[in-house]
Amino acid sequence: MKVQCLKGFRDYLPEEMLQKNRMVRAVQQVFECHGYPPLMTPALEYSEILLGKYGVEGEMLLYRFRDNGDRDVALRYDLTVPLARVLAEHGEITMPFRRYQIAPVWRAEKPARGRFREFMQCDVDLVGADTAAADAEMLVIGSAVMKELGISGYRIRINHRGILAALCRLAGLTSAGEVEFLRLLDKLDKIGADAFRDQVGQISGIDEAGVESVLKIVMANPGDSRQILAGLEDALGSDPEAVSSIERMSEVLDLVEASGVSEQCHIDPSIARGLSYYTGLVYETFLDSLPGFGSVMSGGRYDGLVGLLAGKDLPAIGISLGLDRLFSAMKELNLLENRSQPADVLVVQFSQALAPASFAAAARLRTAGIATVVYPRDAKLKKQFQFAQKAEIPFVVVIGEDEQSRGTLQLREMDKGSQQEISIDEAIRIIGVELPEGNNQ
Amino acid sequence: MKVQCLKGFRDYLPEEMLQKNRMVRAVQQVFECHGYPPLMTPALEYSEILLGKYGVEGEMLLYRFRDNGDRDVALRYDLTVPLARVLAEHGEITMPFRRYQIAPVWRAEKPARGRFREFMQCDVDLVGADTAAADAEMLVIGSAVMKELGISGYRIRINHRGILAALCRLAGLTSAGEVEFLRLLDKLDKIGADAFRDQVGQISGIDEAGVESVLKIVMANPGDSRQILAGLEDALGSDPEAVSSIERMSEVLDLVEASGVSEQCHIDPSIARGLSYYTGLVYETFLDSLPGFGSVMSGGRYDGLVGLLAGKDLPAIGISLGLDRLFSAMKELNLLENRSQPADVLVVQFSQALAPASFAAAARLRTAGIATVVYPRDAKLKKQFQFAQKAEIPFVVVIGEDEQSRGTLQLREMDKGSQQEISIDEAIRIIGVELPEGNNQ
């Protein structure tokens, strides 16, 4: 038997998991500060709930099987469709409804560097309002998350499905060729204009002159969102859907500016989100220093999805942070704090007879909010000190027979190499001063 | 199509999920304060890793299937076997090794009140030390978790597999009948002595006089752990395995007393954990006010399990909190704080033209650490106020044209019904005073 982690999956060992948990707490705090409470749905859903929502390619990636009761079930592929199912099932939920969900999702994708078959998504969604205010709120939250995580160099690139539909019409396409056209448009950055011309040229019904107009629009790079909107208005002003999309994006920009986050938000008509359920604003987030890394936070408006399950339409918009992808990126950018374990103090076990004294001291330290471990055996002192050093525990407490009889302890500061015999109250005071951030973070 | 949550599973809607998250954070804090860092393993493992670890009954409850690459996989059934797999796979991990994991596990059990097929386990494990100190540490952490959760009336009932083996021998049994005998012993509380006599009487090789001796030992209830140990010594003093188990439990009691948590820890020779991998100390936790509810936190020593996967033995002990079960119990006991959403302030959207002013005010409030939502539409003021009332948001901010021109806002305290026109700085001050706990916990 090969004892190994399942192919395409990964463990998070303590050092990385401490860092990841710190990210999760930061994201939770931002979400709750924007008034979003958490929701949790099961890992498994009836397959029919998930089928028909992600497009053909997405559906092939479902972990789908028959459970012990012969039910056709699948692991959740995202957090959006389960939300739609909850909304359909709980008619009593009051609108507007906000919620966040931070949970793993599963996709049987081809594993690649930094891409795994299980990954943590952090989603916020606002249901019940098809307004610029709802749209802008997503961008405000997205910016706040990045700020809280300590990431400054990034761009949220924003588009509207109405613009994409108008670009398709400009290229002579009806609904038949749209999916392929948008898929290639999404890759334009990577493949370049020439390869784009080549490949869209093979879509039946494509209009070559139209393609050039599209390229002119999406590759114009005035660098200013208002100017891009003006350019879109010039080029697509006769298309009513494009006009209303431009108007919406303009209102969104007003609100983003009022919130002080316009510097990171950029209109970009080449952005085309893959999932088939988007209907309005869409956005993706790219890191300046890792341009080839792909989007770390994205989402959009999906006004039809809840209706598919609920029988009545409910407008909705969301933004999803790919926590594991962002974790990889932050690691590559050296933005993660290193700390392999949470203990502030190791209490040595001097002898088995003195173990109760060590346990009593540890209990006192923990009550004072100091994260404390007791060495679980009366090993040689040298070995116990080596453990503290290797684990980077900053303080070691020793209680031998003399200290016990005097009601004191030896406190050693590992980095200074200094040691002093003091009372436990004095030790608590010193450790508290040296660890200003306190334990547990 | 029926739009519903999968049978045997449940959603956590925001109110309950806020409460559950608060529990998770409390548990995390206790674990980290005891020097335990987090570890995360995937939801799916190769089936062969999990098979042969949980006994026949456990194995039938696995969610096992073939993935898209025809691999035989299963959802994790607990967090212990995945830990053993990680230890076997990562030879570089230094001993003693501590970790916690808070994650869902899946068991295809018959659903019952408060029992679901997906539930959150909170596990701490200490690997690399077969000592009383390691054993006692579990009880110290378990007590600290209960205290942090605000639960005072509970008992951790402690036994040792060596005692159970000695009781089997006393009843005339060799390994053949042990499992059935211990299963019935575990149910003694529920079924009573007469039914116990009846049912164990059918095990082949059972010694009736021996069964009476066993009953005398496990039903003696002197109420004091030291007295129980003395009684065990009297009854089983000729059995070497029992003697060393009694010695270990006595040392554990010393350390539990030194840690100030002996009041909740009770030796109880009738406790027999179900999972087949336990080898030493075992424990279960029962709530005084819900005696029929079953154990909410349990575990034990499993010195052989890692060896099954790693090829070399590593002593290990752990304790596992069933968070969803405990959540149900705390709900029943009214120990959960009610708060359906996290927002402190609703900023009204007076008109679409004034939406930017609302967004700017919300950004200021959030920067001051106040959880804030903006109503996502310029609905009638009455409707927006009703929303705040229903969602129990304590403050509402209104910025109309007059307020905007004067650089002020209207702050309404919902419970007092009072409203005043003030600056945003003054509003931040007032909200801060009235919400002493701040937002987000």
In CATH terms, the superfamily of the largest domain in chain A is Bira Bifunctional Protein, Domain 2
For the terminal residues of chain A, how far apart are their CA atoms?
Answer: 39 Å
Kindly report the average pLDDT value of chain A.
92
CATH architecture of the largest domain in chain A: 2-Layer Sandwich
Share in β-strands of chain A: 15-25%
Range of helix content of chain A: 40-55%
What number of domains of chain A? Answer: 2
Q: If you compute it from the alpha carbons, what radius of gyration of chain A comes out, rounded to the nearest whole angstrom?
A: 28 Å
Q: How would you classify the quaternary structure? A: homodimer
Largest sheet of chain A: 7 strands, mixed
Count of separate DSSP helical elements of chain A? 17
Number of strands of chain A: 15
The helix-and-strand class of chain A reads: alpha+beta
What is the strand arrangement across the widest sheet of chain A? 4-5-10-9-8-6-7
**Top-tier CATH class of the largest domain in chain A:** Alpha Beta
